[in-house]
Design a protein that fits this description.
Elements: H1 10-15, E1 36-41, E2 44-49, E3 60-64, H2 67-77, E4 88-96, E5 99-109, H3 115-118, E6 130-138, H4 146-160, E7 165-170, E8 175-176, E9 182-184, H5 190-194, E10 198-202, E11 206-210, E12 216-217, H6 219-227, H7 232-241, H8 253-263, E13 267-271, E14 275-280, H9 285-289, E15 312-313
Parallel strand pairs: 6-7
Antiparallel strand pairs: 1-2, 3-4, 4-5, 5-6, 7-14, 8-9, 10-14, 11-12, 11-13, 13-15
């Protein structure tokens, strides 16, 4: 069971008719109207309830964040253990007793392929007028209801900078590490639904490669190794830390990558596609409604993560 929020008495909550009980780990998403909010600290999920004291906007601040602290925070806490290409980064700070403490990060940037934006927001210039929200993580230091306020402040700054649309994805596929420990519970975008995002269906299905620790080796990372592009050493060192042999001098990078993935026991997992949400940005409802969507709105949005699927050994 996920740890209870501080001050929450599970027995008392069970007896309170108007309040939901603490969600179980195998029920990772709760209804949009739920009073429970998910948090991540050092890759471990936990829950916060609005009754724990609620969110006081006077105590929190949002500021643009430089690359390094944003990257360090995401790598330390987000369950993906990876950091994407970022255009704009924002930090949520807890101003406790006059000292600012970073407790949340939102990252907006460029997707792996331009069609992610152009097919969804066809009238907006990709990577300038439209961006992808690629990471959004709050630690358990944040009270319930922090997400929507943080996201709204980010959108205000993005709109002022000329961004008119944001696309975000929720990964509904649970993942386990090689020992069978659940490391990603699967999400359906509860915070996006609560923030009035438009649900437009799933991204294309694909097969993903799971590393022994349960994280995903993304296609872009593999491409960096094959083509020896900037960042390839980081990917290679990560694989070596998981047990892959070091590349030999003069060896073909693509051949080494296949052998390395086989050596560390990479597994293939069929992924049905992440859930896609769109946020049209504007000063008022009329401005938001003038932004044309390239994909139809689908209703109702998803309510539960996908059922766990078996992963199969990767064969080079």
């Amino acid at each position: 069971m996920a740890p209870a929020a501080p001050g929450a008495d599970p027995e008392h909550l069970m007896k309170t008719a108007v309040q939901e009980t603490l969600p179980l780990l195998d029920l990772p998403e709760v209804p949009t109207a739920s009073d429970w909010c998910r948090r991540w600290t050092h890759f471990k999920p936990s829950w916060r309830h609005r009754s724990d004291g609620g969110f006081d906007a006077r105590r929190f601040e949002v500021h643009p964040l430089p690359e390094k602290p944003a990257k360090d925070f995401v790598l330390a806490h987000h369950y993906s253990a990876s950091y994407p290409s970022a255009t704009r980064r924002y930090g949520l700070y807890d101003n406790l007793e006059g000292e600012l403490r970073l407790c949340g990060v939102a990252v907006f940037g460029v997707p792996a392929g331009s069609k992610v934006l152009t097919s969804t927001l066809p009238d907006l210039q990709p990577n300038t007028e439209s961006l992808v929200c690629s990471r959004f993580v709050l630690t358990d230091a944040c009270p319930g209801n922090s997400e929507s306020w943080f996201l709204a402040r980010c959108f205000e700054d993005l709109l002022a900078a000329g961004v008119r649309g944001v696309v975000s994805f929720a990964d509904p596929v649970p993942r386990q590490d090689a020992s069978g420990t659940l490391i990603a519970v699967g999400h359906v975008g509860t915070i996006y639904k609560a923030s009035n995002a438009i649900y437009t269906g799933r991204a294309p299905a694909r097969t993903i490669k799971l590393l022994p620790d349960g994280t995903v080796l993304h296609d872009r990372a593999a491409q960096k190794v094959r083509r020896q592009e900037q960042g390839h050493r980081y990917v290679e060192n990560m694989l070596i830390s998981l047990g892959a042999p070091a590349p030999r001098a003069g060896s073909d990078p693509g051949t080494w990558l296949r052998e390395a993935l086989a050596a560390i026991g990479t597994r293939d997992l069929r992924h049905r596609g992440a859930h896609r949400y769109v946020f049209p940005l504007g000063k008022n409802r009329r401005e938001r409604e003038l932004i044309r969507l390239g994909r139809p709105q689908i209703s109702p949005p998803p309510r539960q993560p996908d059922q766990p699927q078996p992963a199969h050994p990767n064969c080079p």
